[in-house]
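In this section we walk through a basic example: taking a raw amino acid sequence and producing a predicted 3D structure, encoded as discrete structure tokens. The instruction is simple. Fold the sequence below.
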Amino acid sequence: MDKKYKKSIDLENFIFVILFFGFFIPIGKVMGFANMLQTLMNSSYDLLINTCLYIMAISVLTGSLAAIFSEFGFIALIDLILSKIMKPLYNLPGAASLGILNCYLSDNPSILTLAHEDNFKVLFKKYQLPSLTNLGTSFGMGLIVTTTLGALPIENSGKAALIGNLGAVVGSIFSVRIMQTFTKKFYGTSEMVMIDSIKDLPKNCRIIRNGSIGERFIEALLDGGKSGLNMGASIIPGVIGICTVIMLITNTPGPKGLYTGAYNEGVPILPWIGDKLSFILKPLFGFTNNESIAVPITALGSAGAAMGLVRNLATNNLLTANDLAVFTSICMCWSGYLSTHVAMMDAIGAKELTAQAIFSHTIGGLIAGISAHIFFMILI
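The resulting token sequence is shown next.
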């Protein structure tokens, strides 16, 4: 790649200084600069230990599973069986459904372990592969979100959570399809993903490892685990860098309303923006209380934090079953994508399309919430 050059001093220097300090100085004045710096460092540490290492462990497991699925032809079988469903819905090979399952059972980056398996990638066209980020993120933490919110002491909470899943499916379709309008322009629509190790692969064949069935199983298990480990490590800078800032402008002061420099503190700018947009969001989602607006806004940065808000709303009797359906769909479909999308697009080798992926998924999440509201009115 050719190097790019800029003048040492130009307009960009001054714009950066204004934007950078214009962002952190007001937050520092509210929190106290020492508290803000401590919160940034403590949040980064907490993300590394409790989030990134967890994702890395999940990536090792899913990487091993993906390698075994690839080695013994399960991916090819799923592609054959589900291609007639995945193609019309998502314009993706049937094997992409395994990515949905991976992320539903764990978290957004789990789909990347599949995306690095040669027998999986070779099924895709170049423009289709980056949209896996949007597909996987649409179902991130799905099982956790559904069971957690479906168990809240709200009438019809279980049914509402399941309806939220339907909304997430609709949102995922829009997110993937919108993303593909950008990737088609960037990659074209005809070129397949080329894998050097299997470029001469005969038609209707797959590559396997040498040795007996047992040896192939162990080697696939270890190779997949190593791939997952590398994948988990590669997303750490993006998760820590992006999520720390998102949490800083999403969270609230400490338990007594004071800033202490703890990891879970911040200035709730995103919820404030959501409150100002409530005149748009309330009719679309059917919310009954202004406090509900904070949940989808918080889900932009952290699905876990958003679920915490939902529990608080339920405790204060500010939650309806319709709200719960919408929260389930949005927490699943967005699932903190602002914190992971940048790292995932980089890891999948399409970081130049990160802005398009984020835009597409923003629309997909909104449609997921609206769809859940409509489904709830029809079905309940």
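Looking at the output, two observations stand out. The CA atoms of residues 146 and 161 lie 6 Å apart. Residues 18-379 form one domain. In the next section we compare this with other chains.
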